[in-house]
Amino acid sequence: MKNIEQINVLNMFHDGTITQLIERTKTISMEIEIEYLAKLINKNFTSFICEFINYEEINFKFWEENDFTVIDSELLKKYELEIIEAEEIDNKVVLKCLSKLNTGGNFYIQTETIKIYDQEKQEISISKLAEVSHQYWNTI
Fold it and tell me: What is the pLDDT along the chain (140 residues), one digit of tens a residue?
């Protein structure tokens, strides 16, 4: 999956909050709480799982602290990171986030592909996610 495709996927989670990171061998799962979008899949849902498969790099750098990089998933959860937008910087996907405890920072992501799942661990196609995202933004 090309960077531009990954950016398009991640931008659909605008305003979502990263609530959990789970690391496995070459895979990181990120739970993103974004109730307004999840409810369009199932009225009882509040979040999605974004799985980064065969990742080479995932780390977070605060804007205020140039040399402070966080890779500890437990520590990152405490910052309650809210997604602003995704873009490409230096051939990496960068997820810009605000923080409840700090001004925010950037998630740097290099991964082969991204898969999206609902709360019941059912895979959601990128086209379905785009459809519900457009549905939401066209109703407000």
Answer: 999 999 999 999 999 999 888 888 889 999 999 999 999 999 999 999 999 999 988 888 888 876 667 767 777 777 889 999 999 998 899 999 998 877 889 999 999 999 999 999 999 999 999 999 998 888 87
Distance, in Å, from the CA atom of 125 to the CA atom of 113, rounded to the nearest integer, reads 13
Instruction: Name the nearest CA neighbour of 110 among 53, 61, 64, 67.
Output: 53
Cβ proximity of 42 and 128 under 8 Å: no
CB 41 within 8 A of CB 132: yes
The pTM for the full model equals: 0.91
80 Ramachandran zone, left/alpha/beta (phi>0; psi -120 to 50): left
Q: Copy the structure tokens of residue 30.
A: 């990120």
- 8 Å CB contact between 68 and 82: no
